[in-house]
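Entry 14. Structure prediction run on the chain below.
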Amino acid sequence: MDTLSTPFGEITVLIDGKPVPFSAQEGRKLDVLCPHVSERYRISVRFPPDMEEHTIACVFSSDFSYERTPESGERLECQSFYNESNQKLSIGLECEEAVCLENGLSYKIPRDSKRDQYVFGICWIDDVRWNDQNEESQKRDIQTWFGADPSLPLYIPVCSADRQ
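Output returned:
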C-alpha cells in the first residue's frame, strides 16, 4: 500500500519535500491502551544514509479547518489534530528530535545517521473534541497517543492462558 486515506485527507510521505512511496500496515486496536480507535497504521519508509542532512515528513492534505497540538512523551514525538466533525488524528514517531509541521510531523535526519528505515504511527478516533475537559472524553482522547506509537506492535499475540 502506498496510499492511506484518513478523515483528515490523504497521507503523503515526503523526503526533502518530494513525495516518495511508502508501506502502510494496518494494526488492530489494543484492548487496554486504545480500544476505541477507528484505525491504526504503521508507515515505513526506507532511506539509506548518505552523509547528508534530510527531512522525512508524514503529512496530510485537508480542505477544512482543524486545531493541532503536540503530545510528546518519553522517546515518542506525537502531534494531534482535531477537526470540526469531532475526529482526532495523531501522527507519532520514535526519535529524539522531530519537527511539528502545520499538517504533520517530520524526522530531522543528521549527516551522521546510520538508520535506513523510518517509521510513523498513524491513528484516529471519532467522538473527540478539542480541549474537552470531561474525564470520560479525556480517557478517549488519549487513546490515539498510544495508537500512534510506532514502537507498539501492530498485533499482540493472545496467550493460550489468557483464553481460559
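Residues 158-164 have pLDDT under 50 and may be disordered.
Filed with the rest of this week's runs.
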